[in-house]
Amino acid sequence: MRELIPETPHVSTLVFEVPEWPGHLAGQHVDVRLTAEDGYQAQRSYSIASPPEDGAVALTVERLEEGEVSPYLVGEVRQGDQLELRGPIGGYFVWQAGSEPQRPVLLIGGGSGVVPLMAMIRHRHAAGAGTPMRLLYSSRSLEDVIYRAELDRLAGGGLAIVHTLTRSRPPGWTGYARRLDREMLAEVAWPVTLGAAIFICGPTSFVETASAGLVELGYPAASIRTERFGATGGTS
Amino acid sequence: MAFISRGFKGRRSSAADSSRLPPGQYLTTGFPVLSAGPTPHTPLEKWSFSITGEVDQDRTWTWAEFQALPAEDITADIHCVTKWSKLGTRWTGVPVSALLEGVESAADYVTAFSDGGYTTNLPLEDLVGGKAWVAFQYDGQPLDREHGGPARLLVPHLYLWKSAKWVRGLRLTLDDRPGFWESNGYNMYGDPWREQRYWGD
């Protein structure tokens, strides 16, 4: 591991140099395998946060206190440590800037579900693509917003970032201040007729609300790709 | 090559449980949900189940007809490719062999197809002989939509993506055709005990 970047009080990014990395697509994940001294192993899947254009592989991991692997990754692993990674994995929840450059993209993320979406945002930027893209991003509070400064910096030029804060708001907050709902989707999403590609990632209840809401608003189910994670940690 | 992760201790399961855990899996007591798109909503009056493809003639059941078929209670350990396993889950379902009774076919493979367009492929022999069901109850209750209700395939000896949620029928085929995840990097067969997660496993 080359670098550990704290993102929020519970979330850190681990940047790995991976020899012979075959390259990846924005949205894919890797399996991380840990081995204890007695040979016991534990594996989990984590989304890749870095764009395909990066040489290194960045994983952004939320520390789940009840978890088996994430407290080790966020807390124990130090610069220079080696980890066993397998991947990239997954060929469905991916976006490639070159494939449909004019088709708008709607990204909807809850909590650390923003990670594979961030790979897409970074990919759009690194590829110099003008694809219209919107991110609707739900966090508990402002300090829980992962990649906040970078999102602020990348916004504009066809990329819109819309936050909603569900638990607490800083003084003077003028953005959304509630859980994602159909009204919010209707306000943020592109008109159905634009045929946007939609990617949703977050906890199950969040993904259910977002995807069902979009279907009710008339978006074709086939245009909506989802990725969910439960209380077990990791995304996949 | 495995090497030691410095300072990693892990959380082992009891010996009794670990003998039931395939390699690389961990136990969960929850029931995580994974699916590639929105949860489909098909009202029961519009629901049907079909056997089609390489068969002498197609078979179709309405929900009421399907409910009238002999069902079984099943207790099974289930294993998701995303690493969680859940032991002793309880289901009620119609054995696939009952649905295939009297069907004449030269097929060796099956594509299960679902509302929402999901498909998955399996060898026919993995669906018969008490190894697979079309399940419509979980823990004595109607199967929740997010877990695949009103009915899903249940093939507990393979990774759970083979147990197609919202299943609407089986298409019998002469050759093994990759389904949805099988076209997207996941193994054609998916035996958890041989850890056949991805292409090349």
Give a brief description:
The complex is a heterodimer of chains A (236) and B (201). Chain A is of the alpha/beta class.
Keyword list:
heterodimer; A: 236 residues; alpha/beta; Elongation Factor Tu (Ef-tu), domain 3; Rossmann fold; 2 domains; five-stranded parallel sheet; three-stranded antiparallel sheet; 19% helix; disordered C terminus; B: 201 residues; mainly beta; Sulfite Oxidase, Chain A, domain 2; five-stranded mixed sheet; 3 helices; 6% helix; globular
CATH homologous superfamily grouping of chain B? Oxidoreductase, molybdopterin-binding domain
Shape of chain B from CA axes? globular
Integer average pLDDT of chain B: 94
Q: Structurally, how many domains make up the residues of chain B?
A: 1
Determine the structural class of chain B based on helices, strands and strand pairing: mainly beta
Radius of gyration of chain B: 17 Å
The number of distinct β-strands of chain A equals 11
CATH class of the largest domain in chain A, named Alpha Beta
Low-confidence stretches of chain B: none
Distance between the termini of chain B: 15 Å
Class by SSE composition of chain A = alpha/beta
Beta-strand portion of chain A reads 25-35%
CATH-level-2 architecture of chain B: Alpha-Beta Complex
If interface size is counted as residues with C-beta under 8 Å from the partner's C-beta, which chains form the largest one? A-B, 43 and 39 residues
Radius of gyration of chain A, whole Å:
17 Å
Distance from first to last alpha carbon of chain A:
22 Å
Largest sheet: number of strands, sense, barrel closure of chain B? 6 strands, mixed
- Order of strands in the sheet with the most strands of chain A? 9-8-7-10-11
Q: What is the share of helical residues of chain A?
A: 10-25%
Number of helices of chain B: 3
Strand content of chain B: 25-35%
Secondary-structure map with pairings?
The complex is a heterodimer of chains A (236) and B (201).
Chain A: E1 3-8, E2 11-16, E3 29-35, E4 41-47, E5 57-62, H1 70-73, E6 84-89, E7 105-110, H2 114-126, E8 133-139, H3 148-154, E9 159-165, H4 182-188, E10 197-203, H5 204-216, E11 224-229
Parallel strand pairs in A: 7-8, 7-10, 8-9, 10-11
Antiparallel strand pairs in A: 1-2, 2-5, 3-4, 3-6
Chain B: H1 15-18, E1 26-27, E2 48-53, E3 59-62, H2 63-67, E4 72-79, E5 84-95, H3 96-99, E6 109-114, E7 119-123, E8 133-138, E9 141-142, E10 152-154, E11 167-173
Parallel strand pairs in B: 1-5, 2-11
Antiparallel strand pairs in B: 2-3, 4-5, 5-8, 6-7, 6-11, 8-9, 8-10
